[in-house]
Amino acid sequence: MIAKLKQFNTPKEKYIDSLKFALYCISHPLDGFWDLTHEGRGTYAAANTILFLTLLIRILKLRYTSFIFVQVYWEELNIFLYLASVLFPLALWVVGNWGLTTLFDGKGRLGQVYMATCYALTPYPLVQFPLMIFSNFVTVDEAEFYSTLSALTLVYAAILVVVAMGQIHEYSAKKNLLFTVATLFAMLVMIFILMIFFSMISQGVSYFISIAKELMFRI
């Protein structure tokens, strides 16, 4: 019996089970996100997979979504900045939420905030992929249905993120909403600080370059 149990709990089987558990999280968010971290049902491998699929679908949507909904100018598109539009806010959210909740009795660790956030993104690849295919078979008159369903996917994913944070930090609904707003504000503060930081670096580099040019001119 023990041997069979060990054979069942191989890393591959645990990864597949944790990936399937994402479906339970989006259909039963309160129980799902609690078990995700407190019962160890989630894995970083599955979280990374969901994030990878989210990024992949965003790229595929540029190529395979009907021109009625998406018009892409490939000459002007920077794919790295396009992916950063997901990864950068994700990093700010994870760090900001963890930093604030750590100061106010939040139970979630940095890795758990990241894992739960990635699991909450599950509706995006799950719905956007068939929508991408569906977009090529609809007319302009049916475009509103596509746009509405696509927007609802993003709204539901955002709701799942909020619910996930409440479960892993063990916050009440009111306190969770408060820290959701606080995290969004913290993200703006971090963006402001980063802008100042890179601006100072840019000015410093420009200053030393101007000195080097002046020395070369005099020599």
Order of helices and strands: HHHHHHHHH
Major sheet summary line: none
Low-confidence stretches: 1-8
Overall residue-averaged pLDDT value: 86
Number of helices: 9
Percent helix among the residues? over 70%
Strand content: under 5%
Distance from N terminus to C terminus (CA atoms, Å) equals 83 Å
Secondary structure class reads mainly alpha
User: What does the oligomeric state look like here?
Assistant: single chain
Beta-strand segment tally? 0
- In one word, what is the shape? globular
Give Rg in angstroms: 22 Å
How many structural domains?
1
Describe the fold and architecture:
The model is unreliable at 1-8 (pLDDT under 50). It is globular, with a radius of gyration of 22 Å. The protein has one domain. The protein is 80% helix and 0% strand. It contains 9 helices and no strands. The protein has 219 residues and is an all-alpha fold.
In short:
This protein is mainly α.
Question: Layout of SSEs?
Answer:
Elements: H1 2-8, H2 11-27, H3 29-38, H4 44-64, H5 79-103, H6 110-120, H7 123-134, H8 143-169, H9 173-218
Helix pairs in contact: 2-3, 2-4, 3-8, 4-6, 4-7, 5-6, 5-9, 6-8, 7-8, 8-9
